[in-house]
Every structure is written in C-alpha cells, then in structure tokens.
Design a protein that fits this description.
Length: 161
C-alpha cells in the first residue's frame, strides 16, 4: 500500500517558526506534543545519521536544513518503508508548517497502517501543529479532540506507548 499523508497549518505572523523545527527532540522542543505522546528522541541529538524516534516508531535523521527542514527515514516497525519530514513553506501568504509522510507498507503493515498507525499518526501531527500555533501566537495550547478511532486506540494502548 502506498502512503502519502500531508498535514499543514498556516502559522500566525511573528515569532521564529524555524526554531520549532530546529528544536525537535531537544530540551527546548516546542513543536512535539510530548504532553500527550511519547517524546521524540535521537541518540546524540538531531544530527544527520543519528537514530531515534518516538514510541515504537524508529527512524534516522536524513537531512536537517536549519530553520527550514528536518527529514527522517523509517527504520521500524517492520513493513513501514519511507520517510517523513517537517518543513516550512514560505511560498503562500504567510508561513505554512507542513508534515509529509511518504512511503509504502509491506507484510502485516498493510493492515496495521490503516487500522492502527495512521489514526494515531494523524492525531499526533495535528497536536503538534496545534502546539506550533500556540507557541508562535503566545496563546494557551488547547489540544483538539481526537477522532473516535484515535481515542479508542489510545485507550486500548494506554501505558504501552
């Protein structure tokens, strides 16, 4: 199964949106929703070649363009083949923060991605985009209500992720 999953948000003016990408997995990570999800971590920080991930999702840093892009290649779980990235797009009115996941599935990930991983992924990324808007607008972070499948999966997996 091919995967092409995109989430994006127009960011409020002001602030330094590039610092959100640069701070990923660091001590001052203001993008990742670690209040609701396992933290993103890399052995040795976010440097090209370093390995890490979040929860059961493992990946390595493929590219980091400071203030603009962080791109990662999946190394696990088995059957998830591809990459994901956080990027800033300055080509529209305002700045757009975008998360793109592309790839394909093999083996049991053919059914695990649509039933388990995709709903959780979508909820996590939307939480991160909510974090970004709150950080740049200097307003209180108000997490969105997850879709029903994500709520059920989180309830079932409570304590495991």
């Amino acid at each position: 199964m091919r995967i092409h999953n995109i989430h994006e948000r127009v960011l409020p003016p002001g602030g330094t949106p590039g610092s959100l990408i640069d701070g990923l997995a660091g001590d001052d990570d203001r993008l990742w929703p670690h209040d609701r999800w396992p933290a993103m971590r890399f052995e040795g920080g976010m440097q090209v070649g370093n390995q890490g991930g979040h929860g059961p999702i493992r990946y390595g840093v493929l590219e980091h363009q400071p203030g603009q892009l962080a791109r990662f290649g999946f190394t696990g779980p088995p059957g998830l083949i591809g990459e994901h990235r956080w990027e800033l797009d300055h080509s529209r009115d305002g700045v757009v923060l975008r998360h793109v996941l592309t790839g394909h599935t093999e083996g049991r990930m053919h059914w695990q991605w649509p039933l388990l991983f995709e709903p959780l992924h979508d909820a996590l990324v939307e939480d991160a985009l909510d974090h970004a808007v709150a950080e740049l607008s200097e307003t209180m972070y108000r997490p969105a209500r997850w879709r029903p499948r994500a709520r059920v999966l989180r309830w079932l997996l409570d304590g495991l992720i």
